[in-house]
Amino acid sequence: MPKRPSVLTWIIAFKAFKAIILTAVGVALLTLRHVDPVAVVFRFALAFHLPLTSRVLDRLLTSLSRLTFTRASSTAPA
User: Fold this and answer.
1) Nearest-CA neighbor of 41 among 62, 70, 18?
2) Do 29 and 36 contact (CB within 8 A), yes or no?
């Protein structure tokens, strides 16, 4: 009779999975930091055949189009 995995094994597996996913998201965000976020989401929606008339997609694109890059004057090199 095979031994069932303990709760600790499931917790370790979940934490490892979460670490892998967060690392992948971090790397993706670093590589896409100089790309237009609206274009990236739009290409993603087209690639996965998401409905472009979706209210959720419209809200996401609207919020991404309002993003701006700002520089703090105190951190700018003199």
Assistant:
1) 62
2) no
Q: Taking the model in full, what pTM does it have? A: 0.52
| pLDDT digit string, tens, across residues 22-66 | 999 999 888 888 888 888 888 989 998 989 888 999 998 888 888
Find where tokens 């809200």 sit: 59
pLDDT at 73: 40
Q: Give the span between the Cα atoms of 40 and 67, in whole angstroms.
A: 14
In the Cβ-directed half-sphere of 60, how many Cα atoms lie within 13 Å? 15
10-16 LR contacts (CB < 8 Å, sep 24+): none
